[in-house]
Design a protein that fits this description.
Strand order of the largest sheet: 8-7-6-5-4-3-2-1-9
Number of strands: 18
Order of helices and strands: EEEEEEEEHEHHEEEHEHEHEHHEHEHHE
Radius of gyration: 23 Å
Strand content: 15-25%
CATH architecture of the largest domain: Alpha-Beta Barrel
Oligomer: single chain
Distance between the termini: 27 Å
Largest sheet: 9 strands, antiparallel
Number of domains: 2
Number of helices: 11
Bound molecules: iron/sulfur cluster
Shape: globular
Length: 405
């Protein structure tokens, strides 16, 4: 339900949904938008053409466009993030007081759900926000990364870390030993996640099985853990199960296994293909072969499980560029992806101390600049062929620097 209103010289509207409350208002002649989940947490905001998103860990990511159509971002940590949350709360408090005191004119009465939304947002003050972040860090090991379409998932850390941890361009789980949770410890974790999210669960759209490759868990143990997920959450109502899997895993699942997993609610698996070029995969110390990824995708697709395939742009620099493009096209085409699937182009992000950076320097690799990386994505995309019957997968960019959970 949307309510339009006027208060002094501010016009505003309230969007009251079953999963969030959004205030859009004009303040000092500028548009401001604040959304809160049903637990009262600030979720997103827009102030002076900068969009903000609060992660459950309390950090905010601010993003804005530049004159040359580039996107910039900045992370905001406490105390600045708490100050921003307070600003949102103050706006909500002022508006709610004006509504209650009859100073604001609305085109419809504020329904009880709207009043409840305000009450929850106002109760989520700095002390509550800090307590929430403390609870988050007790419930979760830091969530390393998710595919962009899964940022609003309920993450359940069924297995911790990565079973490989060898890829030179990836630092997400270096400090974490791979461990599969027992059903008992996983049940406690899942219940703690449910309790932590509280009413905010209504905003979550899917369930993501963490961390890096939960689907390497052998079938009997995996099915036992999935039973726990169903005990604690309404999987169908939450939109099903999603997970990463390294396409090159030693623990290969058959089409029959994927059929069983689809029955348990598995909807899509995200595969870090990175490249179809075998020498480049070896340089990246990515385990296994591209051919294994094709086989894994076929097993999933024939079982009704969709895939999201991630390609790394810029990996191997100029030296590998042509082969990377050519052989990645060939592998993606062999996967026979369709409209249910996704392809993500993720730019290589180098960081100080990263093994890849050292290896590339020692091998004398000339890196691709930002524009060349984008062109590489366009070249791969231009070579892709899809059947008219199956349709075209959604293709988009994946910027790991914007990840927020
Ligand atoms: S398999 Fe995936 S998560 Fe593990 S090290 Fe490689 S890229 Fe990182």
């Amino acid at each position: 339900m949307v309510i339009l209103g006027q208060w002094q010289n501010h016009s505003f509207n309230l969007s009251i949904k079953s999963n969030c409350l959004t205030l859009s208002l004009e303040w000092d002649g500028k548009a401001e938008v604040y959304s809160f989940d049903c637990a009262g947490r600030l979720w997103t905001a827009l102030v002076e053409n900068v969009s903000y998103r609060r992660g459950l860990d309390g950090k905010l990511v601010a993003k804005w466009g530049t004159a040359n159509e580039a996107r910039e971002r900045r992370w905001i940590f406490p105390p600045a993030s708490l100050e921003f949350e307070e600003r949102a709360r103050q706006r909500a408090a002022a508006l709610y007081a004006a509504i209650q005191q009859g100073q604001a004119v609305l085109n419809a009465d504020l329904p009880p759900a709207g009043a409840l939304g305000f009450a929850r947002a106002l109760a989520f003050d700095a002390a509550r926000s800090q307590a929430d972040v403390r609870q988050y860090s007790q419930v979760y090991q830091p969530v390393g990364i998710l595919p962009p379409d899964q940022y609003m998932a309920v993450v359940l850390q069924m297995a911790l870390g990565c079973s490989f941890n060898t890829c030179t361009f990836c630092t997400f789980y270096r400090d974490r030993r791979f461990r599969i949770q027992s059903p008992q410890s996983f049940r406690q974790h899942a219940q703690a996640v449910r309790d932590f999210l509280g009413e905010g669960l209504s905003l979550r759209r899917t369930i993501f099985l963490g961390d890096a490759n939960a689907l390497v868990i052998p079938m009997p143990r995996l099915l036992a853990l999935l039973e726990v997920v169903h005990e604690v959450f309404d999987v169908a109502a939450l939109g099903g199960l999603y997970a990463f899997l390294d396409g090159f895993s030693g623990e290969k699942k058959s089409a029959a296994d994927y059929r069983r997993l689809a029955q348990a609610g598995l909807k899509r698996v995200y595969i870090g293909l990175e490249s179809g070029c075998q020498p480049l995969l070896s340089f990246l110390k990515k385990p296994g072969k591209a051919a294994d990824a094709i086989q894994a995708v076929q097993a999933m697709k024939t079982s009704g499980v969709a895939v999201g395939v991630i390609v790394l742009l810029g990996a191997g620099g100029q030296a590998y560029a042509r082969q990377h493009v050519r052989e990645t096209i060939s592998v993606l085409n062999a996967m026979r992806l369709d409209a249910d699937d996704l392809i993500y182009f993720s730019e290589l992000v180098e960081a100080e101390g990263m093994e890849y950076t050292r290896d590339a320097y020692e091998a004398g690799l000339q890196p691709l600049n930002a524009e060349e990386r984008l062109i590489q994505g366009e070249q791969i995309e231009a070579g892709l062929k899809f059947s008219t019957a199956g349709g075209v997968p959604h293709i988009s960019r994946y910027d790991i620097r914007e990840f927020v959970y």
